[in-house]
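My main concern about presentation is that the manuscript never shows what a single data entry looks like. The format is easy to grasp once an entry is in front of the reader. For illustration, here is how one protein appears when written out as sequence plus structure tokens:
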Amino acid sequence: MSDIETRVLEVPGARLRYDIRGDLSAPGAAERAVFLIGTPMDAAGFGSLAGYLTDRPVVTYDPRHVGRSERTDDAEVTPDVHADDVHRVINDLGLPAVNLFGSSGGAITGLALVANHPEQVRILVAHEPPTVSVLPDREQLEAACRDIHQTYQRDGMGPAMAKFIALTSHTGELPKDWSDRPAPDPALFGLPSEDDGSRNDPLLGGAMLTVPTYELDFDALAAASSTIFLAAGTESEGQMTARAPSVIADRLGSELVLFPSHHGGFLGDEYGMPGQPAEFAEKLKELLDVP
């Protein structure tokens, strides 16, 4: 499965690029295929995980305004927009339905897709969706997300990313005075303090305002024919990205599934923070191969 076929798909407002590993036309392959999605992470982040899923076709893509996918308008990019993009990619693949693994913002995209097009998803594994809208401390979490975005617009990537790392690594409910506390030093995280003037980061520039605050359609999710697994990493206990899927699972009447490692547990060394991709892949296969 070393060969990768890359396709280009024109959709309203964007030109998407997606990749296919494996033969979707082989007997039984379409039913076992898995679509791996992240947001705002692009397909490159799934290279290691895909390497451990060679027993089935794997589809990855770059969300609009990320990696190789280009925006052709300046409209707001929300989880519903991403879900519509994935819906169109599935149609372009010619598949009636897929198994889908979504991590972080990709998990929210997956949940939006199931709510809007449940017939297209057999199994969804939603790994650590950062959905602050379901948490009791949503007010201070939303304020912190706005502050990160505003810091990026004012001071650039380093100071904003330092605040992002501090927020996502915090355990327990966020204190009410969080946004009033002294800002972390970017140098502590190996980040630059100087502003290079760029403002094109898809996470800090846009996703911070549209992804965490997304309101899930619980009625549609409960009524969907799709099998939905909410998941979190064992090392993420107490963090916002693990607390959120726990609440969502409870509201849908299911149990939280624990995966090895942290928020990026499927990573090899793509971004210098490796998880446990081999063990992660085995856990994912268990869920995807449920009879």
Remarks:
- The longest strand covers residues 4-11.
